[in-house]
Amino acid sequence: MTKLDDLYAKLPTINCKGLCHDACGVILCSKAEKDAIAEHTGHRVKTIPDVVAPIHKNHVMLRPTEDLSCSYLKKQRCSIYPVRPMICRLYGVADGMQCPHGCVPSRLVTKQEAHDLVEAAAEIK
Asked: Which three-class secondary structure state does DSSP give residue 71?
């Protein structure tokens, strides 16, 4: 189990209906998450240049498609689901990011917890 897996294990569970693909847009991820995506796909991960992106030196923005949806969204499903970034994992389980389709998490992550989890992912080398 990796450090990212350990961090992801802190998130509550949610019985997802798979209807949230409209929320898959420009995605912030840590460099460690970018590396996990590259390893999973076997391809270099395209990002938006740093002048647009980082809120933290170890964050990058994944380059979206022309319609600004996530480039890993294929046929309304996440093609990198096992290695999706923290921000994607927080959707539906974090305060302010609740699912509009009625999926309910085992508990709601506070805004501070969500912030701390995103920052912790960025600190993983």
From this structure: coil
